[in-house]
TrEMBL record, chains A, B:
GO biological process, any: lipid biosynthetic process
SUPFAM superfamilies per the UniProt record, alphabetical: FAD-binding/transporter-associated domain-like (SSF56176), FAD-linked oxidases, C-terminal domain (SSF55103)
InterPro entries xref list: Alkyl-DHAP_Synthase (IPR025650), FAD-bd_oxidored_4_C (IPR004113), FAD-bd_PCMH (IPR016166), FAD-bd_PCMH-like_sf (IPR036318), FAD-bd_PCMH_sub1 (IPR016167), FAD-bd_PCMH_sub2 (IPR016169), FAD-linked_Oxase-like_C (IPR016164), Oxid_FAD_bind_N (IPR006094)
Keywords: FAD, Flavoprotein
Binding site for FAD: 116-122
Identification of the protein by name: FAD-binding protein
GO molecular function, one term: FAD binding
Residues the UniProt record annotates as site (Important for enzyme activity): 298
Active-site positions on this chain: 447 (proton donor/acceptor)
């Protein structure tokens, strides 16, 4: 069963072994496990529902608790410490666009805020119930069918609440794939990907969700917005690009049409090590600008490389690997690059060969598929580490941005330094490490992870998180990055949005939202500051 | 000098020889040359300006006439027959963003409509002065500098009024290219490409302008909208995608940052013939869905193939080619495909080889580079044929859309049939032919040309054009196409926009425009119905 206060299925454990714990203790001090609140205790905090009854709405405390929050660290703190706060007054499970329309009519009639929810994996506070106003979470996961597959145009139409694995299973049964694999894949939905502009691990081949999303249907307080599919169009502004990233402020996506491709005949992930960051960054920039047909490039900085090797288990094997790398010039400060290739075997191998050739002048050492296979095996499992870390008294949080090439390294160093300073002010150390998760000819995403000790009580840990979040967000803004490359805005990033949209951009979006949703019932408080 | 009542430079003639004229006479009857109005006669029709004086504004009749209209057929009819109608009350030539701001302030103060203009190549009525309101055309072509080139991120920032050849020349001097080559390339501007969502002939390699446009600066009545460059972002709706296709309704783009790439080492265009449409369409769909690194695919239908061969000159050579093709199974009904490749020679040749292999099962006959070289040589010259045709009493017009694969052939046949019926109602024949100008995994653009006889007077020819335009636009809408793949909306396509945007989409765009431009001075009457 899915955990109510952590990530994923409670039958899945991804434990930290003694070496990993020793590594963490050495980096930030020994963790002190905090006492988790119980499920009944949390349910007991759910207030009586203020909603008038409706055939689609469940107002039981259990269902409302399980749909109250996402996966951000402040969401976790509320669940783990049992400080639930505002929860939705009910949860609806629509099964059709008509059900969604009925809920919109109901919400407008009774002045109820609607919070659209896919898999509930937001890490930016998209799902929090607004204080004051009665609210209803609209859980879309029953709308999950493959409705139409046009193999000639390679377009598939799904109910927008389809979860990643269900989507891929329905397509693969017909020989196709979408190829969208965010780390949240197991529990996130197509509609959520669109609403928050998600990006998957193999976006280099398959594109971001913006490129995949070709059309669909959005139910709004002012009616239905139907987005037809065209291969391309010059007919005015692209309304899909307004729906993408709208985070529930415009309406609820009921159907989405996405481009698909035949399942690739061949797929492989290879690891290459570099002696230092500068050479590694130069190599990946040259590779991505060469426009080769790769499916993934993912570059870890020295501390992430060290961390991944330390947590990998197989101590003896890793020792041998490090010995070999050291002989080849990759010692302290080495960086690991993961290269993915997919497609026809001959073309994939050609692309890999071209990419490897570009690593050589930068001292790249190709170590084959072992590390890549390990990575692929754990691609959706690493996120379970948050559960294990918490149980040993550690918080794990992440932040991500994207920035043009000349500022990539400065951004990485600034975000890490900001985190160190912020936790330092609380007398704590933070273990920070970074990877470039998505590479583009124009720049890269910069994805930083923070591991630090829990204080053990809600207020102190919320204060630590707030200091950290503010410091790293300011570092992003000051270095010209976007406040999110792949997680979206939600509540947590909204204060920083004006830095990139400008006041006119923000007021324009507000005017648009007010036109479509004059009562302001759609996910109020999210996205816009 | 640039023609005031036709396409391009008046030193360039692209004549129709006797064989071409015989071909046209056989298709639609002998043309009767119409008498063109004189330049002085046209200038004399320009009314006295209603504008208060301003340091940047020229109110001379000559300048206003030369900036009054674009290149649509109704624009031509007004110029050729000397029925000028409404013209702007003045033309401003700003040289800086501050100049543009001054003009916006002036326009707001005096209630003047602003018509942003790049190269004046619109074929959809983007530039027409509104009746009633005093209006000012803002000609952006003095803002044409390469302002900044970031070779690390492959980003170039230009003044938005830069013309295609000036843009490429400034980049090529530094080893880079944008790679955007619409047929209007010689006279269209970067800002115009963005405002009308242009697409170039090699978009398969370089992308549409949407993919190239990474950021910029828009001056609006409500202030400046600065669009920063990010490699990618999940921070809410993408404001660039609202500026793209805004057709002057939001403001005036002063700077645009575009992605660029090193000039390719190798470029070639090859021709392949197919025995019939169905086999050709199947082949191009399979090629584009294979994701090969090609720079262009352009497929002519049988009548376009015949027309291109008839107009190619070199009668003997073409006769030999047709004899050879006939032996290889491509006779009556054959279709010509142009394949472009660019990049590193080895990779380009590999991609070409893969593409050619996919043509074989469909009966494709590769005839090498001769036709491709001819096409490349004339890529910006074919549009001069409109001048020559007019002088022999023929009108040439085009219409284009894009549609998913299952409807491509139906669309082509419907548009051609609609044109035949519309001109038939006037007792005239029309020579129509079609190519797929841009190919996508999901579908294709369908680009149809019409050649028919001029009646010889303004009212009759406007009536013929209106019948034709309405009939083909309805055919597009009824067959699920977008009203424009690459020419934009302007005035001529505005009545059909609601069919794809929906009433809620249209009203949302209107709300957005009203927020940014509360007085409604920005290019009124364009884009929205």
């Amino acid at each position: 069963m899915r955990r109510w206060n952590g990530w994923g299925d409670d039958a899945v454990e991804f434990a930290l072994n003694d070496e990993a714990l020793a590594f963490l203790a050495q980096r930030v001090g020994a963790g002190k496990p905090a006492a988790d609140a119980g499920y009944e205790q949390a349910c007991a905090q759910i207030q009586e529902s203020r909603l008038p009854p409706h055939r689609l709405i469940d107002t039981s405390p259990e269902v409302r608790l399980r749909n109250a929050l996402g996966q951000s660290l402040p969401d976790w703190l509320r669940l783990r410490y049992g400080v639930i706060g505002a929860a939705p007054d009910g949860v609806a499970y629509p099964e059709s666009a008509q059900d969604v329309r009925d809920l919109l009519d109901y919400a407008q009639q009774f002045g109820v805020a609607l919070i659209p929810q896919g898999g509930g994996t937001s890490v930016a506070g998209h799902l929090t119930a607004p204080a004051g106003l009665p609210s209803l979470t609209v859980n879309m996961t029953r709308m999950r069918q493959l409705l139409y597959l046009d193999t000639e145009s390679q377009l598939a139409t799904f109910g927008a609440g389809v979860l990643g694995p269900d989507l891929e299973a329905q397509l693969r049964a017909r020989g196709y794939t979408l190829g969208h694999f965010p780390q949240s894949f197991e529990y996130s939905t197509l509609g959520g990907w669109v609403a928050a502009r998600s990006s998957g691990q193999q976006s280099l081949r398959y594109g971001r969700i913006e490129q995949m999303f070709r059309g669909g249907s959005l139910e709004t307080p002012s009616g239905t917005l139907h987005l037809p599919t065209f291969p391309a169009s010059a007919a005015g502004p692209d309304l899909r690009e307004i729906v993408l990233g709208s985070e529930g402020r415009l309406g609820i996506l009921t159907e989405a049409t996405v481009r698909v491709t035949p399942v690739p005949a061949y797929e492989a992930f290879h690891a290459v090590f570099f002696p230092d960051w500068r050479s590694a960054e130069t190599a990946v920039r040259q590779i991505v600008q060469a426009g080769l047909s790769l499916s993934m490039l993912r570059l870890s900085n020295p501390l992430e490389t060290t961390t991944m090797l330390a947590l990998a288990g197989h101590k003896k094997l890793i020792g041998l690997l490090e010995g070999y790398l050291s002989l080849r010039g990759c010692k302290e400060g080495k960086c690991m690059l993961m290269i993915g290739v997919s497609g026809r075997k001959s073309l994939a191998r050609t692309a890999l060969r071209e990419a490897l050739a570009l690593t050589l002048p930068q001292g790249g050492v190709h170590v084959g598929r072992y590390m890549g296979d390990k990575w692929k095996q754990n691609r959706f499992r690493n996120v379970y580490l948050r559960n294990a870390a918490w149980s040993h008294g550690y918080a794990i949080d992440t932040v991500e941005t994207a920035v043009d090439w000349p500022r990539v390294e400065i951004m990485m160093r600034s975000v890490e330094a900001a985190a160190n300073a912020a936790l330092g002010a609380h007398g704590e150390q933070v273990h920070t490490y970074t990877h470039l998760s998505h590479l583009y000819a124009q720049g890269a995403s910069v994805y930083t992870t923070f591991v630090y000790r829990l204080a053990g009580d809600y207020e102190s840990d919320l204060a630590r998180w707030k200091s950290l979040k503010k410091a790293v967000s300011m570092a992003i803004v000051e270095n010209g990055g976007t406040i999110s490359h792949q997680h979206g805005v939600g509540s947590d990033h909204a204060p920083y949005l004006a830095a990139e949209k400008g006041q006119l951009g923000i007021s324009s979006l507000r005017a648009l939202f007010e036109h479509v949703d004059p009562q302001g019932i759609m996910n109020p408080g999210k996205l816009l500051p």
